[in-house]
Write a structure and sequence with these properties.
The protein is of the alpha/beta class. It contains 16 helices and 14 strands. The strands form five sheets. A four-stranded parallel sheet has the order 4-3-9-10, with helices on both faces. It has a four-stranded antiparallel sheet with strand order 5-6-7-8. A hairpin with a 2-residue loop joins strand 5 and strand 6 (about 140-145). Helix 8 (about 280-290) crosses helix 9. The structure holds zinc ion. The site of zinc ion has 3 residues, from loops.
Length: about 450
């Protein structure tokens, strides 16, 4: 197996992936809080970890990808009050939208998608363990995590413990309940305006966001699992707090590696509702198409900001066309052995901190060389290109669904014509051209080889 290195946020450097059980990798990627339709910024981690799973499977690992839905949260209560529907109804509706929208990415579902609402016994048990260990305390129906109980607090986000603000927007009452302003809520007593609550040893209430993930991740993958992921806006406080909770309750790190995706930036794009973090995923899928969107995500290294701009979107569209057109000129079967270097470099780039941008560079080199050879009349097998595209979930570009392009029978005639021309059998080439014309295809000889276009009628 290839050595795989991933940038670990906690270490601040690349670390080798070393599974607890050889050959098995667990990934927990924080999913959305379901209070509105997800935007392209939320889709980036979804795509990144789905593609990482494909790569690890290609490398021979058995991968379990878990991605939760946060369906109990202040934001949901607030949005439900604004829209006048019960918070459970809103969360269910937005959860269904999330599944439908991400389904359209064509990347499959994660292996498990736990909900906070259906994980309540584990969440409450984890809080109880923290209280028993004196790493948490009850105060008037709330339970708070005692940050200073964790000697390693701050080790993930690598900041000084005294410089941290939990962002809980404490009112004087909430602040008075905390023994230290650094502490954060594990359980909140139910308040007027909150329409759903659960029974607990501390009275009726609901969990804090951070403890939900610690409990759901442990339930699905155990502690010390291989990769914990999410957007880099989650490093602090969410992931710092997840790590602290599990460390204090289990005397064990929650995850071996913490992997964070960069944000989406809006450079050069027209400033309208249709850009960036306010672009709903569903709108991006309608406008750009699934293939170009996945290629756009893969075109940037996951840790770098992704430039959401008209020109980068257009480049992704052109990239999909380039793959489709190259594919039409290839034949089924093994690729030339002297192109295997690009294939190897493609996978080496993915093993080096999952650098999809650099990997794509090698894929384009492969395509350029294949185009050069097919234009020269050589028959080039598509196997290597198919292997690379499959890891990026783009192999479907080679097979359709067709944009009205020629079917296999027409392409077979075109390849025969290529061969006839290469053999300077002009009469045979003309007959084949006429056969294609009878089926409605015009042969166009271009710089990158012959292609078929629909005859205009
Ligand atoms: Zn989380």
């Amino acid at each position: 197996m290839r050595t795989i290195r991933i940038h670990d946020t906690a270490a601040g450097e690349l670390r080798e992936l070393t599974p607890r059980v050889p050959g098995e990798v667990g990934i927990y990627a924080c999913g959305p809080t379901v209070y509105n339709r997800i935007h392209v910024g939320n889709a980036r981690p979804f795509v990144t970890f789905a593609l990482l799973k494909r790569f690890l499977q290609h490398e021979g690992y058995d991968v379990t990808l878990v991605s939760n839905l946060t369906d109990v949260n202040d934001k949901i209560y607030a949005a439900a009050v604004r829209t006048g529907v019960p918070s459970t109804t809103l969360a269910e509706e937005m959860g269904a939208h999330y599944r439908a929208d991400t389904d359209r990415l064509g990347l499959g579902r994660p292996d498990a998608e736990p909900l906070a609402t259906t994980s309540m016994p584990g969440i409450i048990a984890l809080i109880a363990d923290l209280v028993e260990r004196d790493a948490a305390y009850e105060a008037e129906g709330d339970v708070y995590f005692r940050v200073r109980a964790d000697a390693r607090y701050g080790s993930l986000s690598r900041r000084d413990v005294d410089m941290m603000d939990q962002g809980e927007g404490d009112d004087p009452v909430g602040l008075a309940l905390k023994q230290d302003a650094l502490d954060f809520a594990l359980w909140k007593a139910t308040k007027p305006g909150e329409d759903v609550a659960w029974d607990s040893p501390w009275g009726r209430g609901r969990p804090g966001w951070h403890i939900e993930c610690s409990a759901m991740a442990e339930e699905a993958l155990g502690v010390g699992f291989e990769i914990h992921g999410g957007g880099n806006d989650l490093v602090f406080p969410h992931h710092e707090n997840e790590a602290a909770q599990t460390r204090c309750a289990r005397d064990h790190e929650l995850a071996q590696l913490w992997m964070h995706t960069g944000m989406i930036e809006l450079r050069g794009a027209k400033m309208s509702k249709s850009v960036g973090n306010i672009t709903p995923l569903v709108e991006a899928l309608d406008d750009i198409g699934r293939d170009a969107l996945v290629l756009l995500f893969a075109s940037s290294h996951y840790r770098q900001p992704l430039n959401w701009a008209d020109d980068s979107i257009e480049q992704a569209r052109a990239g999909v066309r380039r793959i489709r057109e190259a594919g039409r000129l290839l034949v089924d079967g093994p690729s030339p052995e002297d192109l295997a270097g690009e294939l190897e470099a493609f996978f080496a780039a993915l093993a080096d901190d999952f650098n999809t941008a650099r990997a794509l560079g090698h894929l384009w080199s492969w395509v350029r060389e294949a185009n050069r050879r097919t234009a020269a009349g050589e028959r080039v097998g598509d196997a290597d290109l198919r292997t690379m595209l499959a890891v990026l979930a783009l192999d479907g570009v080679l097979d359709g669904p067709d944009d009205g392009g020629p079917d296999d029978a027409a392409l077979a005639l075109l390849r025969e014509r290529d061969a006839a021309r290469a053999a300077k059998d002009w009469a045979r080439a003309d007959d084949l051209r006429d056969a294609l014309a009878a089926d409605g295809w015009t042969v166009r000889d271009g710089a990158s080889g012959a292609e078929l276009v629909r005859t205009e009628t």
